[in-house]
Amino acid sequence: MKKLVTLVLFLCFVLAQAQTQRTVSSNWTSFSQMIEIESPVKKKFRVIASVKVESNDPNAWAGVWASVHTKDDERGFFDNMGDRPVKINDWKSYTVEGTIDNNSKTLYFGGLCSYNGKFYFDKFELLIENAKGVFEPWAVLNSSFEAPLKNGEIPKWDTRISKEAVVKVKEFKIALDKSSTDGKSSLMLEGSGIKVRPEAKIGNVEGASPKIGDMISMLEDLKFRVERAVKNMTQYEIDYLHDAEANRIGALVMHLAAAEKSYQVFTFENRELNEEEKKKWDAALNLDQGGRDDFKGHDIQYYLDIYNEVRAKTIEELKKRDDAWFAEVHQGYDWTNQYCWFHVMEHQSNHLGQILFLKKRIPSQQKLTLPALPKEIKK
Question: Do you know which InterPro entries this protein is assigned to (predicted)?
Answer without folding.
Answer: DinB/YfiT-like, MST-like
